[in-house]
Amino acid sequence: MAEPKESKKEKSSGGCVSKLLVLILLAAGAGLGAAVFFVIQPQDLTDLGGYAPAAQAMPERDMKVVLKNSIDRGYPIVLSEAEINHWLARTLVAKQGGFLEGKITLDHVWVRLEAGRAEIIMERNILGKPLTVSMYVQIERMIAPGGTSTEIRLHGGPFIADAPLPPKGGRFGKLVVPQGFLLLVMPAYEKLVALFPEEIELGIRQMEQIKMEKGRLVLNPRETTTVPGTSKTF
């Protein structure tokens, strides 16, 4: 006895739906696998100023003294990417505590300076394998009738071209991630900021002009003539 036509249509429809679900799951699995692959691949750091061993021969300068002299005497200073990374290598005492101590180490903190933003990179070693995470930051100077203030914005530009949201947050390995993923690494960066209160106060909050360029940071303590009530991202 032949099956009713409606029964055949239902089976056909059910088969198509199940195949579609399988394809979606396979695509999701492949995408997750690719994401994990790029996360565990450390980003290339060889382009960073101060990364090469030859950079260790740079003259040492006390960053707090350099910044304070700039503010007290009112002259601008230019800090190269290599100089900043060299200073971090000398002064930063990084230690990974807790139950992961001995298995995960924080080897270096690097800064990559680009036009309008900086990338703060943490280079870790997990069970003998290197791993990098980073976040993008911008500096915004707000000028109002009551005075000025400086904000550090977690922003690396649009994550999707022609779409303002979400912004780029940083990179986990070689994978660029949206800003929301930074919640996973924010405690480590908050501890890093807490190590340099004086340098942040002198080099950011007390500077009137902060300009990030390719490979260098330009700081100027002189007052600007920007119209009150406006802001500018450097």
The overall pLDDT average reads 79
* Quaternary organization: single chain
Computed CA radius of gyration, to the nearest angstrom: 24 Å
Instruction: Please count the helical segments.
Output: 5
**Low-pLDDT residue intervals, each spanning 5 or more residues:** 225-234
Q: Report the order of strands and helices.
A: HHEHEEEEEEEHHEEE
Structural class: alpha+beta
Number of strands: 11
Question: Percent range for helical residues?
Answer: 25-40%
Shape: globular
- Relative strand content: 25-35%
Tell me about the largest β-sheet. Answer: 8 strands, antiparallel
Distance from N terminus to C terminus (CA atoms, Å) equals 79 Å
Kindly summarize this structure in a few lines.
The protein is an alpha+beta fold.
Structure explained in plain terms:
Helix 2 (63-73) packs parallel to helix 5. This protein has 234 residues and is of the alpha+beta class. The protein has helices spanning 5-39, 63-73, 81-91, 186-194, 197-205, and strands at 77-80, 104-114, 117-126, 129-144, 147-153, 158-160, 163-172, 175-178, 209-213, 216-220, 230-233.
